[in-house]
Amino acid sequence: MLRTKDPYRVYHNHVLWAWLCFHHSETVSDIIKSLFSFSNNLIANQLLIILGGELKGAPADLEKGSQVVLEFLSNTIGINNFTLKEGSGLSRKNQFTANQMMSILIHFKPYQSLLRIDKNRFQAKTGTLKGVSTYAGYMLSPSGDNYPFVIMLNQSRWSSDRNKVANIMYQGVFN
């Protein structure tokens, strides 16, 4: 194969091939920031797969990505006895306790700005599965201090249940 000065043409076996597509992607940082604001389960899983491939070698897969996260959470944050099977949060096999999630939030605090601000009271991420509703992040206080919180509701029929709990919690802390 011979590349020419023209980046869109490659000579291979004396046949001229034109590139059909060229794409510039956002940076990984921009993708992650967008992911925390507007969930995209496919992208979350792809990032986990890429992480596994980069740090554990080819071929990249969910198992390797989960292993990288398991090692990080265990070695860096001290969290053990949890299960992570995929990166989107849609698997009921992903299992963390509220205390474990709180430890993650404490470690994550320098990156809090990646989370979307909700009602000028919370900078947090929601999660919903049938019968389960979660909300985790930071309460934004009027004084500027931010406090991590975790809400995990089982048997919840409505995502509004977590909002009610969050608002009661906020009122109890700041009023």
Strand coverage percent:
15-25%
Order of strands across the main sheet:
4-5-6-7
Quickly count the domains.
2
Given as residue ranges, the uncertain stretches (5+ residues, pLDDT < 50) are none
The separation of the N and C termini measures 70 Å
Helix content: 25-40%
Globular, elongated, flat, extended or rod-shaped: what is the shape? globular
- Main sheet: strands, sense, barrel: 4 strands, antiparallel
Q: What class do helices, strands and sheet pairing give?
A: alpha+beta
The total beta strand count reads: 7
Query: H/E series, N to C?
Result: EEEHHHHEEEEH
What is the gyration radius calculated from CA atoms? 21 Å
Number of helices: 5
- Provide mean pLDDT, rounded: 84
Task: List its salient traits.
single chain, 175 residues, alpha+beta, 2 domains, four-stranded antiparallel sheet, 7 strands, 39% helix
Overview of this protein structure:
- By secondary structure, the chain is of the alpha+beta class.
- The protein folds into 2 domains: 27-95, no CATH class; 97-175, no CATH class.
- Helix content is 39%, strand content 22%.
- It has helices at residues 28-37, 41-56, 62-77, 98-108, 160-174, and strands spanning 2-3, 9-12, 15-18, 117-118, 122-129, 132-140, 146-154.
- Strands 4-5-6-7 form a 4-stranded antiparallel sheet, with helices on both faces. It has a 3-stranded antiparallel sheet with strand order 1-2-3, with no helix packed on it.
- Strand 2 and strand 3 form a beta hairpin.
- The N and C termini lie far apart (70 Å).
